[in-house]
Specification:
Helix 3 crosses helix 7 and helix 6 packs antiparallel against helix 7. The protein folds into 2 domains: 34 residues; 165 residues. The protein is flat. It contains 7 helices and no strands. The mean pLDDT is 93. The protein is mainly alpha-helical and 203 residues long.
Length: 203
């Protein structure tokens, strides 16, 4: 077991195997077969959407609750370990978590038949408060995704020295990335509320 847990890839594979075993156990327990219909695919993409979202928002909150507030407490000689190793790795999973979240979310909305009602925030005919709530969550998530890919990441590349720029531009890029990261943290709170409210019918 220690060998599996010592390697991240092995750990992830083990987690996927456990998920499959759980599915099989639940099917046998309740006597249901695996019917790969539209509902099953919607479930699969909902699960992937949640997993991707946990990766994305988890790292966003790590940056804003842990890394950024504590950078000033780290001795200067130790900061290159954060900016040269930890931050680039975290930003990789951060931006691809955002991409996976938005793609799986759009596919999920299409599979469940509410994509256009949600995009229109429930203003189309035969729409409901669910479409308004999930649509608000989708639009907030889309703004956050845009910030990640087109503002935060390009500026982080400058701030971390991945793209060479002069010192003043590097400092400005770091501040811009931080402010938009904080913007996403702020937006994540109503976004998650709208998503959960839509699923629970309380919007």
């Amino acid at each position: 077991m220690a060998k599996i847990l010592s390697d991240l890839t092995s750990t992830i594979i083990a987690g996927l195997v456990l998920a499959v075993v759980l599915i099989v156990i639940m099917m046998l327990w309740h006597g249901t077969g695996l019917d790969l219909d539209r509902n099953w695919w919607a479930f699969l993409f909902r699960w992937m959407h949640v997993v991707s979202g946990v990766m994305w928002i988890g790292i966003l909150w790590y940056f804003n609750f842990v890394q950024i507030p504590n950078m000033g407490n780290i001795p200067d000689e130790q900061k290159p370990a954060i900016t040269g190793v930890i931050a680039p790795a975290a930003l990789f999973w951060f931006r691809w978590g955002a991409m996976a979240t938005i793609i799986t979310g759009l596919i999920l909305a299409w599979l469940n038949g509410y994509l256009f009602q949600a995009i229109s925030l429930g203003t189309m005919e035969n729409s409901s408060s669910f479409h308004t709530a999930i649509g608000i969550g989708m639009w907030l998530g889309t703004i956050m995704w845009f910030n990640v890919w087109f503002i935060i990441w390009p500026n982080q590349k400058k701030a971390l020295g991945i793209v060479e720029v002069v010192a003043d531009e590097k400092a400005k890029a770091g501040r811009t990335a931080m402010l938009f990261s904080r913007t996403n943290t702020m937006l994540s709170i109503p976004m998650l509320y709208a998503m959960v409210a839509a699923q629970n019918g309380v919007f």
